[in-house]
Amino acid sequence: MDRFDHFTLLALIVVALAVGGLFFFHRGAVEAGDLRQARLAAMARPVDPQLDKKLDIAGNLLAAGDMAKAKGLLKSLEKQHPYEGRVFMLMAEYYIHRQQPIQAMLEHRKAIELNPDFLDKKTAAFQGKVIKNNLKEAQALIEEGLKREPQNDKWQKYRAAMYYMQRRIAGSCG
User: Which three-class secondary structure state does DSSP give residue 148?
Assistant: First the structure.
């Protein structure tokens, strides 16, 4: 072996050690970052043990047909828990009872953006059939509105939201 071979061998050893070191340190950094993010997410989510009871009360009010009380309770829950998807699902149910499928579709959109499990058949939170049925009703109204007023921005925004919902449903596990 001449001098060039020794230099090449030494360079390969240094590169191998550097790659191994980078792999070791990078892997540890990613795990620490993931733990940090999980801890921050857990701390950022407000804990309200009464939320489930309030949501049950709102659902019972909707089932009983007391729309005014249900809407008031749901609006207050939206302000208190803006990142809780179940509140928006109940608000969508309110609009379904009021026969306003477009507004229900918009509430469903907020709910699935916060909690995609509403479209996953494998979870207990699955609401895909309700969302699909409501989307069909909203689609009929939106298409009718676009035929009457094709240049109206409101109908175009509703159509964009409808297409977004259709993509989310098509890409879901339900």
Answer: helix
